Protein backbone atom coordinates (compact mmCIF):
# COMPACT_ATOMS: atom_id res chain seq x y z
CA UNK A 1 0.00 0.00 0.00
CA UNK A 2 2.71 2.43 1.03
CA UNK A 3 4.86 1.44 -1.94
CA UNK A 4 1.97 2.13 -4.27
CA UNK A 5 1.57 5.53 -2.71
CA UNK A 6 5.26 6.29 -3.24
CA UNK A 7 5.03 5.14 -6.83
CA UNK A 8 1.95 7.31 -7.32
CA UNK A 9 3.73 10.30 -5.86
CA UNK A 10 6.78 9.65 -8.02
CA UNK A 11 4.65 9.45 -11.14
CA UNK A 12 2.82 12.60 -10.16
CA UNK A 13 6.05 14.47 -9.51
CA UNK A 14 7.79 13.26 -12.62
CA UNK A 15 4.74 14.23 -14.62
CA UNK A 16 4.41 17.61 -12.96
CA UNK A 17 8.08 18.47 -13.20
CA UNK A 18 8.15 17.59 -16.86
CA UNK A 19 5.02 19.72 -17.24
CA UNK A 20 6.81 22.63 -15.59
CA UNK A 21 9.94 22.21 -17.64
CA UNK A 22 8.34 23.87 -20.60
CA UNK A 23 7.27 26.79 -18.45
CA UNK A 24 10.69 27.69 -17.07
CA UNK A 25 10.35 25.93 -13.73
CA UNK A 26 11.37 22.54 -12.48
CA UNK A 27 11.74 21.49 -8.90
CA UNK A 28 13.61 18.45 -7.66
CA UNK A 29 12.58 17.86 -4.07
CA UNK A 30 15.05 15.49 -2.40
CA UNK A 31 12.14 13.79 -0.60
CA UNK A 32 10.89 12.63 -3.99
CA UNK A 33 14.25 10.98 -4.64
CA UNK A 34 14.19 8.82 -1.54
CA UNK A 35 15.60 11.12 1.14
CA UNK A 36 14.18 10.34 4.56
CA UNK A 37 15.01 13.58 6.32
CA UNK A 38 14.85 12.03 9.77
CA UNK A 39 18.34 13.08 10.82
CA UNK A 40 19.48 9.49 11.22
CA UNK A 41 19.57 7.74 7.86
CA UNK A 42 22.23 8.66 5.32
CA UNK A 43 20.47 10.68 2.63
CA UNK A 44 23.51 11.28 0.40
CA UNK A 45 22.39 8.91 -2.33
CA UNK A 46 18.96 10.55 -2.59
CA UNK A 47 20.58 13.99 -2.80
CA UNK A 48 22.84 12.80 -5.60
CA UNK A 49 19.85 11.36 -7.48
CA UNK A 50 18.02 14.68 -7.25
CA UNK A 51 21.19 16.49 -8.30
CA UNK A 52 21.80 14.20 -11.26
CA UNK A 53 18.22 14.65 -12.44
CA UNK A 54 18.41 18.44 -12.15
CA UNK A 55 21.85 18.67 -13.70
CA UNK A 56 20.74 17.23 -17.04
CA UNK A 57 17.77 19.55 -17.54
CA UNK A 58 18.15 21.41 -20.80
CA UNK A 59 16.45 24.40 -22.32
CA UNK A 60 15.57 27.68 -20.72
CA UNK A 61 14.39 26.31 -17.41
CA UNK A 62 16.38 26.75 -14.23
CA UNK A 63 16.26 23.45 -12.34
CA UNK A 64 15.91 23.81 -8.56
CA UNK A 65 16.96 21.18 -6.07
CA UNK A 66 14.74 21.64 -3.03
CA UNK A 67 15.78 20.63 0.48
CA UNK A 68 12.47 21.17 2.23
CA UNK A 69 11.81 22.83 5.54
CA UNK A 70 11.00 20.84 8.64
CA UNK A 71 13.41 17.99 7.89
CA UNK A 72 16.97 17.14 8.88
CA UNK A 73 18.99 15.34 6.25
CA UNK A 74 22.16 13.56 7.21
CA UNK A 75 24.80 13.48 4.49
CA UNK A 76 28.10 11.63 4.29
CA UNK A 77 30.79 13.41 2.19
CA UNK A 78 29.03 14.25 -1.07
CA UNK A 79 30.27 15.78 -4.29
CA UNK A 80 27.73 17.55 -6.50
CA UNK A 81 29.50 17.55 -9.82
CA UNK A 82 29.03 19.69 -12.86
CA UNK A 83 29.08 20.90 -15.46
CA UNK A 84 25.30 20.84 -15.71
CA UNK A 85 23.35 21.17 -18.93
CA UNK A 86 21.52 24.36 -17.99
CA UNK A 87 23.19 27.74 -17.71
CA UNK A 88 21.99 28.14 -14.11
CA UNK A 89 21.03 25.74 -11.36
CA UNK A 90 19.41 26.47 -7.99
CA UNK A 91 19.91 24.69 -4.72
CA UNK A 92 17.22 25.87 -2.33
CA UNK A 93 18.06 24.93 1.23
CA UNK A 94 15.13 25.33 3.61
CA UNK A 95 15.69 22.39 5.95
CA UNK A 96 18.80 21.25 7.81
CA UNK A 97 21.74 19.32 6.41
CA UNK A 98 23.59 17.49 9.17
CA UNK A 99 27.13 16.10 9.06
CA UNK A 100 27.89 12.68 10.48
CA UNK A 101 29.82 12.69 13.74
CA UNK A 102 33.54 12.14 13.34
CA UNK A 103 33.14 8.57 14.57
CA UNK A 104 30.57 7.78 11.85
CA UNK A 105 32.38 9.64 9.07
CA UNK A 106 32.90 7.72 5.80
CA UNK A 107 35.24 8.59 2.96
CA UNK A 108 37.13 11.81 2.37
CA UNK A 109 38.18 13.47 5.62
CA UNK A 110 39.11 16.76 3.95
CA UNK A 111 35.71 17.61 2.53
CA UNK A 112 32.08 17.23 3.35
CA UNK A 113 29.71 18.96 0.90
CA UNK A 114 31.40 19.83 -2.37
CA UNK A 115 30.13 21.50 -5.51
CA UNK A 116 32.61 21.14 -8.33
CA UNK A 117 32.65 22.63 -11.80
CA UNK A 118 29.09 23.91 -11.50
CA UNK A 119 28.66 27.25 -13.25
CA UNK A 120 25.71 29.54 -12.51
CA UNK A 121 24.93 27.87 -9.19
CA UNK A 122 22.72 29.67 -6.72
CA UNK A 123 22.60 28.24 -3.19
CA UNK A 124 20.02 30.02 -1.07
CA UNK A 125 17.35 29.68 1.57
CA UNK A 126 16.82 30.00 5.29
CA UNK A 127 18.09 26.48 6.04
CA UNK A 128 21.02 25.30 8.09
CA UNK A 129 24.25 23.46 7.41
CA UNK A 130 25.29 21.83 10.69
CA UNK A 131 28.83 20.43 10.66
CA UNK A 132 28.64 18.82 14.13
CA UNK A 133 32.28 19.68 14.68
CA UNK A 134 32.57 18.81 18.37
CA UNK A 135 34.38 15.51 17.98
CA UNK A 136 36.79 16.99 15.43
CA UNK A 137 37.69 19.98 17.56
CA UNK A 138 39.04 18.17 20.54
CA UNK A 139 41.12 15.83 18.40
CA UNK A 140 42.82 18.44 16.26
CA UNK A 141 45.03 20.19 18.74
CA UNK A 142 48.20 18.36 17.58
CA UNK A 143 48.25 18.72 13.76
CA UNK A 144 47.76 22.47 13.82
CA UNK A 145 51.45 23.16 14.26
CA UNK A 146 52.62 20.70 11.62
CA UNK A 147 53.50 23.01 8.76
CA UNK A 148 54.20 21.24 5.52
CA UNK A 149 56.90 23.21 3.71
CA UNK A 150 56.37 21.50 0.36
CA UNK A 151 52.65 22.22 0.38
CA UNK A 152 53.19 25.57 1.99
CA UNK A 153 50.28 24.91 4.23
CA UNK A 154 49.21 23.30 7.40
CA UNK A 155 48.71 19.58 6.90
CA UNK A 156 45.22 19.26 8.28
CA UNK A 157 42.93 16.32 7.83
CA UNK A 158 39.72 17.95 8.88
CA UNK A 159 36.75 18.40 6.60
CA UNK A 160 35.71 21.78 5.29
CA UNK A 161 31.93 21.85 5.58
CA UNK A 162 31.06 23.39 2.23
CA UNK A 163 33.47 23.68 -0.64
CA UNK A 164 33.08 25.19 -4.09
CA UNK A 165 35.71 24.05 -6.60
CA UNK A 166 35.82 25.77 -9.98
CA UNK A 167 32.29 27.17 -9.76
CA UNK A 168 31.97 30.36 -11.80
CA UNK A 169 29.06 32.79 -11.48
CA UNK A 170 28.28 31.51 -8.02
CA UNK A 171 25.69 33.09 -5.79
CA UNK A 172 25.07 32.22 -2.18
CA UNK A 173 22.47 33.87 -0.03
CA UNK A 174 20.88 33.49 3.35
CA UNK A 175 22.05 30.10 4.53
CA UNK A 176 22.99 29.46 8.18
CA UNK A 177 26.13 27.52 9.05
CA UNK A 178 27.07 26.16 12.44
CA UNK A 179 29.82 24.11 14.04
CA UNK A 180 32.03 23.33 11.08
CA UNK A 181 34.45 20.44 11.68
CA UNK A 182 37.13 22.62 10.06
CA UNK A 183 36.38 25.67 7.93
CA UNK A 184 32.75 26.42 7.08
CA UNK A 185 32.95 27.61 3.48
CA UNK A 186 35.78 27.32 1.00
CA UNK A 187 35.72 29.07 -2.37
CA UNK A 188 38.47 27.67 -4.58
CA UNK A 189 39.22 28.51 -8.22
CA UNK A 190 35.96 30.39 -8.71
CA UNK A 191 35.27 33.55 -10.66
CA UNK A 192 32.38 35.97 -10.13
CA UNK A 193 31.06 35.00 -6.71
CA UNK A 194 28.46 36.83 -4.63
CA UNK A 195 27.91 35.81 -1.03
CA UNK A 196 25.49 37.63 1.26
CA UNK A 197 23.11 37.25 4.15
CA UNK A 198 24.96 34.37 5.82
CA UNK A 199 25.11 33.57 9.52
CA UNK A 200 28.17 31.46 10.35
CA UNK A 201 28.54 30.45 13.98
CA UNK A 202 30.98 28.21 15.87
CA UNK A 203 32.37 28.60 19.38
CA UNK A 204 35.24 31.08 19.76
CA UNK A 205 37.49 28.32 21.06
CA UNK A 206 36.80 25.77 18.30
CA UNK A 207 40.06 25.19 16.36
CA UNK A 208 40.36 25.78 12.59
CA UNK A 209 36.77 26.82 12.11
CA UNK A 210 37.34 29.56 9.53
CA UNK A 211 34.18 31.28 8.33
CA UNK A 212 34.94 31.76 4.63
CA UNK A 213 38.25 30.89 2.92
CA UNK A 214 38.97 32.08 -0.58
CA UNK A 215 41.81 30.78 -2.74
CA UNK A 216 42.71 31.16 -6.43
CA UNK A 217 39.52 33.13 -7.05
CA UNK A 218 38.61 36.52 -8.44
CA UNK A 219 35.66 38.90 -8.47
CA UNK A 220 34.34 37.77 -5.13
CA UNK A 221 31.99 39.94 -3.08
CA UNK A 222 31.01 39.00 0.47
CA UNK A 223 28.55 41.23 2.29
CA UNK A 224 25.85 41.61 4.93
CA UNK A 225 26.79 38.58 6.96
CA UNK A 226 27.42 37.63 10.56
CA UNK A 227 30.50 35.49 11.19
CA UNK A 228 31.44 34.37 14.70
CA UNK A 229 33.90 31.46 14.71
CA UNK A 230 37.09 30.04 16.26
CA UNK A 231 39.50 31.00 13.45
CA UNK A 232 39.53 33.62 10.68
CA UNK A 233 36.13 35.13 9.90
CA UNK A 234 37.27 35.55 6.31
CA UNK A 235 40.64 34.42 4.96
CA UNK A 236 41.99 35.47 1.57
CA UNK A 237 44.72 33.11 0.44
CA UNK A 238 47.07 32.92 -2.54
CA UNK A 239 45.85 33.50 -6.08
CA UNK A 240 43.07 35.96 -5.26
CA UNK A 241 42.25 39.29 -6.85
CA UNK A 242 39.34 41.72 -7.00
CA UNK A 243 37.80 40.80 -3.69
CA UNK A 244 35.22 43.01 -1.96
CA UNK A 245 34.18 42.50 1.64
CA UNK A 246 31.70 44.81 3.31
CA UNK A 247 29.04 45.04 5.99
CA UNK A 248 30.36 42.03 7.87
CA UNK A 249 30.00 41.63 11.62
CA UNK A 250 32.94 39.46 12.70
CA UNK A 251 33.63 38.04 16.13
CA UNK A 252 34.59 36.01 17.93
CA UNK A 253 37.29 34.85 15.55
CA UNK A 254 40.68 35.79 14.13
CA UNK A 255 39.46 38.66 12.02
CA UNK A 256 39.58 39.38 8.32
CA UNK A 257 42.91 38.03 7.09
CA UNK A 258 45.04 38.12 4.02
CA UNK A 259 46.56 34.92 5.15
CA UNK A 260 49.65 32.77 5.28
CA UNK A 261 51.00 33.87 1.96
CA UNK A 262 54.05 31.87 1.01
CA UNK A 263 56.84 32.45 -1.52
CA UNK A 264 54.88 32.74 -4.75
CA UNK A 265 51.40 33.55 -3.52
CA UNK A 266 49.87 36.61 -5.12
CA UNK A 267 46.99 38.61 -3.74
CA UNK A 268 45.83 41.95 -5.05
CA UNK A 269 42.89 44.32 -5.08
CA UNK A 270 41.22 43.38 -1.83
CA UNK A 271 38.88 46.00 -0.40
CA UNK A 272 37.27 45.72 2.97
CA UNK A 273 34.85 48.36 4.22
CA UNK A 274 32.08 49.05 6.71
CA UNK A 275 32.75 46.05 8.91
CA UNK A 276 32.76 45.59 12.66
CA UNK A 277 35.13 43.31 14.52
CA UNK A 278 33.95 42.40 17.99
CA UNK A 279 35.97 40.44 20.54
CA UNK A 280 38.27 38.88 17.95
CA UNK A 281 41.99 38.17 18.29
CA UNK A 282 42.78 40.15 15.12
CA UNK A 283 40.99 42.76 13.10
CA UNK A 284 42.52 43.71 9.77
CA UNK A 285 45.36 41.24 9.31
CA UNK A 286 47.97 40.50 6.66
CA UNK A 287 50.28 37.59 7.43
CA UNK A 288 53.01 36.17 5.23
CA UNK A 289 55.79 33.63 5.55
CA UNK A 290 59.38 34.86 5.90
CA UNK A 291 60.54 33.09 2.72
CA UNK A 292 61.72 35.00 -0.32
CA UNK A 293 59.75 34.63 -3.55
CA UNK A 294 58.02 36.57 -6.29
CA UNK A 295 54.65 36.64 -4.58
CA UNK A 296 53.02 39.77 -3.21
CA UNK A 297 50.09 41.25 -1.34
CA UNK A 298 49.24 44.62 -2.80
CA UNK A 299 46.46 47.14 -3.39
CA UNK A 300 44.60 46.27 -0.23
CA UNK A 301 42.37 48.64 1.69
CA UNK A 302 40.55 48.57 4.98
CA UNK A 303 38.09 51.44 5.47
CA UNK A 304 35.38 52.40 7.96
CA UNK A 305 36.00 49.58 10.38
CA UNK A 306 34.98 49.51 14.03
CA UNK A 307 36.88 47.37 16.51
CA UNK A 308 35.39 46.32 19.81
CA UNK A 309 37.88 44.85 22.29
CA UNK A 310 40.00 43.27 19.54
CA UNK A 311 43.41 41.90 20.53
CA UNK A 312 45.37 43.14 17.48
CA UNK A 313 43.07 45.50 15.55
CA UNK A 314 45.59 46.27 12.80
CA UNK A 315 48.36 43.78 12.14
CA UNK A 316 50.89 42.95 9.45
CA UNK A 317 53.06 39.96 10.29
CA UNK A 318 55.75 38.96 7.82
CA UNK A 319 57.20 36.33 10.09
CA UNK A 320 54.21 34.11 10.23
CA UNK A 321 54.14 30.36 10.20
CA UNK A 322 57.56 28.87 10.41
CA UNK A 323 60.51 29.84 12.50
CA UNK A 324 63.32 30.34 10.02
CA UNK A 325 65.89 33.04 9.55
CA UNK A 326 64.25 36.12 8.05
CA UNK A 327 64.76 35.70 4.31
CA UNK A 328 62.76 38.81 3.55
CA UNK A 329 59.43 37.36 2.55
CA UNK A 330 57.14 38.61 -0.18
CA UNK A 331 56.34 42.24 -0.96
CA UNK A 332 53.51 43.86 0.89
CA UNK A 333 52.67 47.18 -0.71
CA UNK A 334 50.00 49.78 -1.42
CA UNK A 335 48.03 49.07 1.72
CA UNK A 336 45.53 51.69 2.85
CA UNK A 337 43.88 51.98 6.24
CA UNK A 338 41.29 54.73 6.49
CA UNK A 339 38.82 55.57 9.26
CA UNK A 340 39.41 52.65 11.62
CA UNK A 341 38.38 53.12 15.20
CA UNK A 342 37.47 51.42 18.43
CA UNK A 343 39.12 49.52 21.23
CA UNK A 344 41.87 46.95 21.60
CA UNK A 345 41.89 44.18 24.20
CA UNK A 346 45.61 44.22 25.04
CA UNK A 347 48.16 47.00 24.78
CA UNK A 348 49.08 46.83 21.07
CA UNK A 349 46.61 48.60 18.80
CA UNK A 350 48.72 48.54 15.65
CA UNK A 351 51.41 45.97 14.97
CA UNK A 352 53.39 46.28 11.75
CA UNK A 353 56.10 43.66 11.87
CA UNK A 354 57.74 43.48 8.45
CA UNK A 355 60.82 41.63 7.24
CA UNK A 356 63.72 43.61 5.87
CA UNK A 357 62.61 46.20 3.24
CA UNK A 358 59.44 44.51 2.07
CA UNK A 359 56.55 46.65 3.35
CA UNK A 360 56.14 49.73 1.24
CA UNK A 361 53.53 52.40 0.65
CA UNK A 362 51.56 51.60 3.78
CA UNK A 363 49.11 54.47 4.31
CA UNK A 364 47.10 55.23 7.41
CA UNK A 365 44.69 58.07 7.91
CA UNK A 366 42.02 58.73 10.55
CA UNK A 367 42.89 55.89 12.89
CA UNK A 368 41.80 56.08 16.50
CA UNK A 369 42.13 53.01 18.70
CA UNK A 370 42.16 53.08 22.46
CA UNK A 371 42.44 50.34 25.04
CA UNK A 372 39.21 48.66 26.16
CA UNK A 373 40.66 48.91 29.64
CA UNK A 374 40.56 52.58 30.64
CA UNK A 375 43.54 52.05 32.94
CA UNK A 376 45.75 51.04 30.02
CA UNK A 377 47.32 52.98 27.23
CA UNK A 378 47.33 51.52 23.72
CA UNK A 379 50.68 51.35 21.94
CA UNK A 380 52.03 50.48 18.49
CA UNK A 381 54.88 48.51 16.99
CA UNK A 382 56.48 49.13 13.61
CA UNK A 383 59.48 47.42 12.00
CA UNK A 384 60.76 47.91 8.45
CA UNK A 385 57.79 49.84 7.10
CA UNK A 386 57.87 52.60 4.52
CA UNK A 387 54.67 54.54 4.60
CA UNK A 388 52.64 57.57 5.42
CA UNK A 389 50.83 57.97 8.73
CA UNK A 390 48.43 60.84 9.34
CA UNK A 391 45.96 61.37 12.15
CA UNK A 392 46.88 58.06 13.72
CA UNK A 393 46.16 57.43 17.40
CA UNK A 394 48.16 55.90 18.99
CA UNK A 395 51.13 57.31 17.14
CA UNK A 396 53.06 54.94 14.88
CA UNK A 397 56.83 55.29 15.00
CA UNK A 398 58.65 53.14 12.49
CA UNK A 399 62.21 51.90 12.88
C1 LIG B 1 35.26 15.72 22.89
O1 LIG B 1 33.98 15.81 22.33
C2 LIG B 1 33.03 14.88 22.85
C3 LIG B 1 31.77 14.99 22.04
O2 LIG B 1 31.22 16.29 22.10
C4 LIG B 1 32.82 15.16 24.32
O3 LIG B 1 31.91 14.25 24.83
C5 LIG B 1 34.15 15.01 25.04
O4 LIG B 1 34.00 15.36 26.38
C6 LIG B 1 35.21 15.90 24.39
N1 LIG B 1 36.50 15.61 24.95
C7 LIG B 1 37.33 16.56 25.36
C8 LIG B 1 38.66 16.08 25.82
O5 LIG B 1 37.04 17.74 25.32
C1 LIG C 1 28.17 36.89 -12.40
O1 LIG C 1 27.30 35.88 -11.92
C2 LIG C 1 25.93 36.27 -11.88
C3 LIG C 1 25.16 35.11 -11.29
O2 LIG C 1 25.50 34.94 -9.95
C4 LIG C 1 25.46 36.60 -13.28
O3 LIG C 1 24.12 37.05 -13.22
C5 LIG C 1 26.33 37.68 -13.87
O4 LIG C 1 25.97 37.90 -15.20
C6 LIG C 1 27.79 37.27 -13.82
N1 LIG C 1 28.63 38.39 -14.24
C7 LIG C 1 29.56 38.27 -15.14
C8 LIG C 1 30.35 39.49 -15.43
O5 LIG C 1 29.78 37.24 -15.73
C1 LIG D 1 23.24 33.54 14.00
O1 LIG D 1 23.01 32.20 14.41
C2 LIG D 1 23.24 32.00 15.78
C3 LIG D 1 23.19 30.51 16.08
O2 LIG D 1 22.19 29.88 15.35
C4 LIG D 1 22.21 32.81 16.57
O3 LIG D 1 22.41 32.63 17.95
C5 LIG D 1 22.40 34.28 16.21
O4 LIG D 1 21.38 35.04 16.83
C6 LIG D 1 22.35 34.51 14.72
N1 LIG D 1 22.80 35.88 14.48
C7 LIG D 1 22.26 36.68 13.58
C8 LIG D 1 22.85 38.03 13.47
O5 LIG D 1 21.33 36.33 12.89
C1 LIG E 1 30.25 53.15 5.59
O1 LIG E 1 30.59 53.73 6.85
C2 LIG E 1 30.79 55.14 6.80
C3 LIG E 1 31.32 55.59 8.13
O2 LIG E 1 30.62 55.01 9.18
C4 LIG E 1 29.47 55.78 6.45
O3 LIG E 1 29.64 57.20 6.35
C5 LIG E 1 28.99 55.24 5.12
O4 LIG E 1 27.72 55.75 4.83
C6 LIG E 1 28.94 53.74 5.12
N1 LIG E 1 28.69 53.26 3.78
C7 LIG E 1 27.75 52.40 3.52
C8 LIG E 1 27.57 52.05 2.08
O5 LIG E 1 27.05 51.88 4.39
C1 LIG F 1 59.57 43.97 -4.13
O1 LIG F 1 59.69 45.34 -3.83
C2 LIG F 1 60.99 45.85 -4.12
C3 LIG F 1 61.05 47.25 -3.58
O2 LIG F 1 59.92 47.99 -3.95
C4 LIG F 1 61.21 45.77 -5.62
O3 LIG F 1 62.48 46.23 -5.95
C5 LIG F 1 61.07 44.30 -6.06
O4 LIG F 1 61.15 44.21 -7.45
C6 LIG F 1 59.76 43.73 -5.61
N1 LIG F 1 59.74 42.31 -5.87
C7 LIG F 1 58.71 41.71 -6.45
C8 LIG F 1 58.86 40.23 -6.64
O5 LIG F 1 57.68 42.29 -6.78
C1 LIG G 1 50.31 53.88 -2.76
O1 LIG G 1 49.13 53.09 -2.68
C2 LIG G 1 47.97 53.78 -3.10
C3 LIG G 1 46.77 52.87 -2.81
O2 LIG G 1 46.91 51.62 -3.47
C4 LIG G 1 48.09 54.12 -4.58
O3 LIG G 1 46.95 54.83 -4.98
C5 LIG G 1 49.33 54.98 -4.77
O4 LIG G 1 49.52 55.20 -6.15
C6 LIG G 1 50.55 54.27 -4.21
N1 LIG G 1 51.69 55.15 -4.27
C7 LIG G 1 52.82 54.80 -4.83
C8 LIG G 1 53.91 55.84 -4.76
O5 LIG G 1 53.00 53.74 -5.39
C1 LIG H 1 37.98 42.26 26.41
O1 LIG H 1 38.26 40.91 26.07
C2 LIG H 1 38.95 40.22 27.09
C3 LIG H 1 39.26 38.85 26.57
O2 LIG H 1 40.07 38.95 25.45
C4 LIG H 1 38.09 40.18 28.36
O3 LIG H 1 38.82 39.53 29.37
C5 LIG H 1 37.75 41.58 28.78
O4 LIG H 1 36.85 41.54 29.86
C6 LIG H 1 37.09 42.35 27.64
N1 LIG H 1 36.94 43.74 28.01
C7 LIG H 1 35.84 44.42 27.80
C8 LIG H 1 35.85 45.83 28.24
O5 LIG H 1 34.85 43.93 27.25
UniProtKB/TrEMBL annotation:
Cited InterPro entries: Glyco_hydro_28, PbH1, Pectin_lyas_fold, Pectin_lyase_fold/virulence
GO molecular function annotation: polygalacturonase activity
GO biological process, one term: carbohydrate metabolic process
Signal peptide annotation: 1-24
Domain of life (superkingdom): Eukaryota
Cellular localization per UniProt: Secreted, Cell wall
Transmembrane domains' residue ranges: none
UniProt keyword list: Cell wall, Cell wall biogenesis/degradation, Glycosidase, Hydrolase, Secreted, Signal
Pfam (any one): Glyco_hydro_28
Protein family: Belongs to the glycosyl hydrolase 28 family.
PANTHER family: PTHR31375
Protein name: Putative polygalacturonase
Originating organism: Lupinus albus (White lupine)
Amino acid sequence: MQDQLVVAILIFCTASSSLWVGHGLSTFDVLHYGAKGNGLIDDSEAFLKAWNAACVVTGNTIPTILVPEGHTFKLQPTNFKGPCKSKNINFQLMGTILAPQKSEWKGDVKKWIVFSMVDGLSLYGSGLIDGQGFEWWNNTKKPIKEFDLSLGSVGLHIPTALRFNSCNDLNMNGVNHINGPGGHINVHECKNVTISGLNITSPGNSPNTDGIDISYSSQVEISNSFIGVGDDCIAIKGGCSHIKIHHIACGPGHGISIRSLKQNDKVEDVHVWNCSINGATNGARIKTWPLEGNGYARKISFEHITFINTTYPIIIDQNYGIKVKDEGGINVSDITYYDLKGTCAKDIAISLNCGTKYCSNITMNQINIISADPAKEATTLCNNVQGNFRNVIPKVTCS
